[in-house]
Design goal:
Elements (H helix, E strand, L loop, with lengths): L11 H8 L9 E4 L4 E4 L2 E5 L12 H14 L14 H14 L3 E5 L2 H7 L8 E6 L4 H9 L3 E5 L4 H10 L5 E7 L11 H10 L2 E6 L14 H4 L8 E5 L9 E5 L1 H10 L1 H5 L5 H16 L2 H20 L10 E7 L1 H13 L2 E2 L1 E3 L9 E6 L6 H17 L19
Parallel strand pairs: 3-12, 5-6, 5-7, 7-8, 8-9
Antiparallel strand pairs: 1-2, 2-3, 4-10, 9-10, 11-14, 13-14
The structure holds 4'-deoxy-4'-aminopyridoxal-5'-phosphate.
Length: 409
């Protein structure tokens, strides 16, 4: 008889990473230092792998708001919004988010993952969901929990999406699902193309703005606003774990749709509500996002500079404008090696390997925040230059040999 737990062993690539000392995950941070460094494994390293783009997670105003709200409401709500976990703070934040995003209403849930999962309530057997091939796992899971037919289009390929929409004239409800800013590669959805197709083919457009809300657009509402299309997106999902510096998620859109999701979105109905500390921190963050645009301008300027410097070095740097900068090394082991070499150089980054990215598309993601200084950027460039040369990703300078130890697993 098959042991149901027999599957619970490392995947071959995970095993290889462990055996070669390249395993990069679950590294505990034991301390946060003042200068943007964190202590990992007893060493101070520069954090270039968080999604805290606006540097708000350590902001004294968020900490004070959270502490005050915990003092008044306690550490948790012990139940779902529907039954016993609703606070006036949820309603206040929902009204403020709807106003910020220019939508009729918003629903706050406990994570961005849950915000996306709640979308499953919209995916019935009467519908077809057209998804970008590279959408986040939480959106994939929403399509699995939902019962609609799912049609995937090639990443950001609007001609492909158009062909699929034209071929598929079944008279069913149609939804297009994409991310505003893609989390791994840091590139942007072709929002104008998606809006045009959604209108031409009677489809509703849903954008996950987990990474771009707070960061892009003149008012900071996200990728759609960046392209002048904020009003044309039907539903927008958010997380508070990136630009908002805390935890939580939200969905914003037409009032009747939000009310439907409030009653039918399973994470909204069957999971405990977001606690007061996170709600108050998210409200403080929203206020800062609305009043301090210089934060997003600073991180976007830093991203432009770092991307240009890494490209000039000859590293395989993905083009774009966002502070998630992908070094597209392709091979999984090379990605793990680069991550380890950068850590040895004092820089913490993220290794993105399959299944988080497609096979053969492994990448190291460098994420910047508004706190990174010019000196920090120079330190990252120097580390990338040294690690890239050692691994043969940048042609070695004449007379410079590549250490054999880093070329063999
Ligand atoms: N969507 C995208 C694109 C994400 O990158 C993430 C988190 N990495 C989420 C949703 C989920 O957000 P949360 O961490 O708040 O659950």
């Amino acid at each position: 008889m098959l042991d149901a737990f027999g599957k619970c062993r490392p995947r071959p690539d995970q095993q290889l990473a462990i055996e070669t000392g390249l395993y990069p995950y679950f590294r505990p941070i034991t301390e946060r230092l003042e200068n943007g460094e964190v202590v990992i494994g007893g060493h101070a390293v520069l954090m270039a792998g968080s999604n805290d783009y606006l540097d708000l997670s350590q902001d004294p105003r968020l900490k004070a708001a959270a502490a005050d709200a915990i003092g008044r409401h306690g550490a948790g709500n012990s139940g779902s919004r529907l039954l016993n976990g609703s606070l006036r703070l949820h309603e206040d934040l929902e009204a403020e988010l709807a106003d910020f995003l220019g939508k009729e209403a918003a629903l706050v849930v406990s994570t961005g993952y849950q915000a996306n999962l709640a979308l499953a309530a919209l995916f019935t057997p009467d519908d077809v969901v057209y998804t970008d091939q590279l959408i986040h796992a939480s959106l994939v899971d929403a399509t699995r929990l939902g019962r609609a037919r799912v049609v995937r289009y090639r990443h950001n390929d609007m001609a492909h999406l158009e062909r699929l929409l034209e071929e598929d004239g079944t008279g069913q409800g149609r939804l297009i699902l994409s991310e505003g800013m893609f989390s791994a590669e840091g590139d942007l959805c072709d929002v104008p193309g998606a809006v045009r197709l959604s209108r031409a083919h009677g489809a509703r457009l849903i954008l996950d703005s987990a990474h771009d809300a707070g960061l892009l657009g003149a008012g900071g509402t996200g990728a759609a606003e960046h392209f002048g299309q904020q009003g044309a997106v039907d539903l927008q999902t958010l997380t508070f774990s990136k630009c908002f510096g805390t935890l939580g998620g939200a969905i914003a859109g037409p009032g009747h749709v939000i009310d439907y999701l409030r009653h039918h979105g399973r994470p909204a109905v069957f999971s405990a509500s977001l606690p007061a500390g996170c709600l108050a921190a998210a409200r403080a963050a929203l206020h800062i996002i609305r009043t301090e645009p210089e934060r997003r301008l600073r991180v976007l300027a830093a991203a432009a500079k770092l991307r240009a410097d890494l490209t000039a070095l000859g590293l395989p740097t993905a083009p774009g404008i966002t502070p998630a900068i992908a070094l597209q090394v392709g091979d999984t082991l090379m990605c793990l090696r680069l991550c380890k070499e950068l850590l040895a150089e004092g820089i913490y980054t993220n290794a993105m390997v399959p299944p988080a990215v497609p096979g053969g598309k492994a990448l190291v993601r460098l994420s910047l925040t508004a706190a990174h200084t010019d000196a920090n950027l120079a330190r990252i460039v120097d580390a990338c230059a040294a690690a890239g040369r050692r691994l043969g990703l940048i042609p070695a300078r004449p007379g410079h040999t590549v250490a054999a130890s880093v070329l063999t697993p």
